[in-house]
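USER:
I would value a second opinion on how I read folds in token form. Give me a protein, with the fold worked out from its sequence. Write it directly below this note and I will take it from there.

ASSISTANT:
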Amino acid sequence: MYDDVQLATVLNEARRIAIVGLSARFDSPSYGVGVYLIRRGYQVIPVNPQCTKIFGTSSYQTVSDIPGGVDMVVVFRHPRDVPDVARDVIEAAPKYLWLQSGIRHDTVAADVESRGVAVYQDICIKQTHKRLAQSNILKY
């Protein structure tokens, strides 16, 4: 489990968020999370090589292709894909890597953290944000 104050700090600091595996399908969980974050004032940048635009925003092949970098990378990919995503995350050097619910890879998390990126695993950013917003810990 993660400390609520720590999670709130992360969600208050990270304003520019790349979502790896963001789908253009309205019924996908990643799309719903993206819409939620945008409505809360976050800048969401899609990372999906199969799309050119999502939410009217350019979609990138990799996180390291995003001009200007990002504060956080949220991952909606199968756990077997996490090592490849992590290599890209290490190159892009965001402050945070967030693996959505059901996604955990302890070896990769340890490697990424050893390079100065804080990792949060198996936790839904939308549900966490909602819960912390209701408790008035969040600014946004």
